[in-house]
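Trying the structure run again after the queue cleared.
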Amino acid sequence: MKLVSWNINSIRQRHEHVQAFLTKEQPDWLFLQEIKCQNEQFPKETFEEMGYQVIVHGQKAYNGVAILSRHPYQLNHVVLPDLNEEEPQARYLEIESQGVILCNLYLPNGNSGGEEGFQRKLHFINALIKRAETLLINKQDCIFAGDFNICPTDQDFAPKTLSENDALIRTESRNGFYRLLWLGLTDALRALYPTETLYTFWDYTRGAWQRNAGLRIDHALLSPKMAEQLKSFTIEKSERDKEQPSDHVPIIIEF
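Done. Tokens:
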């Protein structure tokens, strides 16, 4: 079983990158974040022809998440249950497939909009924690994966890439991530690579890719049974070297 998560930074600009990647990797599920389009603008037919069912929660020009599934699924939520159902930003998509609850998320960055923007990030984290707690109490196998916009430790960002008050590393953001782990979820990458310096994002500016001045902000958190079945975790860095790449690369989790 293979799941991939990828902040694609505009599906309409990079659908050919995704096509080529799917042909090569053949994942069971692909989580996409920051698709930057409305539902009707998503190139569904392209991926349906490749054998995928396509679930989209889009938004004009910004945000947006999608799941491509090779398997039958049930749609559970397009907004975290603890958030207002009128939530204007498309940042969450949850399905059940093959007996597993699959949660695709694009957490707010928290650096724009001043303190109000940061509080929006914390509100999302708290809703995420409540959803995880509910699933774990009910002993549901689950995976939370996507762009968390959090560097959990200082090892997860290159020196001098972030200021000390950046929302990606503020104490409140990190505590939210730790609370998810304290509930019983496992950081899939750190389960296999506890000490390595590894990144999933490199900014387009200041030669970040060439200098390997990256961040680890794309994560997969696993419920206990899924953690027991974890086989491998791969960061597909080759995608960052392509023409007009996303600033994030895919993370590939195999069970």
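Residues 23 and 50 are 8 Å apart (CA to CA). Worth checking whether this holds up in the mutant runs.
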